Amino acid sequence: MATISSFCQECGKAVQLHVGQSIDVSELVWHSGYSCDCGTQIQMDDTGVPPDEIRYEIIKAEGLWHLSIHEEGKQRLIAAKEIRTALHLPFSDLKAILKSIPGRLKSGTKAEMEWLKKCLSNKGINVEIVLEQENKHSSIPSWEQL
Ligand SMILES: [Zn+2]
Q1: Is the pLDDT of residue 53 over 70?
Q2: Which of 12, 43, 121, 125 meets the CB 3.0–4.6 Å disulfide criterion with 33?
Q3: How far is the CA of 54 from the centre of ligand 1 (A)?
Q4: Ligand 1 centroid to 34 CA: how many Å?
Q5: What's the gap in Å between 62 CA and the centre of ligand 1?
Q6: SS3 assignment for 64-99
Q7: Gap from CA of 129 to ligand 1 centroid (Å)
């Protein structure tokens, strides 16, 4: 869980917003919430990928993760199609995706990479996710970017 400095919606006091991601069956979900001294407790859940400022805090707390696909031949094309669907990318991006297979395709939070791994593993694709050891990023790869 990562934290972000924020303010209580009720009393305006400084609070620590807790943010995190998880996988719910087959969907990527994210949570944010806080509890304030004034008694206010907020808990929100949403599906999909959180805003970049939240992803940035999660990556700071849990590290940057990479997804690699080890496939060739027909499986490689199946993997690329699956990635395109999962990321809602246009059909024209299929070529760009194929360029990174086999190899390292995408980076992001641990939950995002685990979710992609799950989507691909369901199709029998051989996927590996690894944590980047040195995490010194001042910017993070956006979800839409390959
Ligand atoms: Zn409050």
Answers
A1: yes
A2: 43
A3: 21
A4: 9
A5: 28
A6: CEEEEECCCCHHHHHHHHHHHHHCCCCHHHHHHHHH
A7: 40
Q: How far is the CA of 42 from the centre of ligand 1 (A)?
A: 10
pLDDT value at residue 144: 78
pLDDT at 91: 94
pLDDT at 134: 67
Q: What is the pLDDT of residue 135?
A: 61
Q: How far is the CA of 43 from the centre of ligand 1 (A)?
A: 14
Ordered structural domains, the chain, with CATH: 2-62 (2.20.25), 65-131 (3.30.1390.10)
Distance 13 CA to ligand 1 centre (A): 6
Mean pLDDT score, 89-96: 93
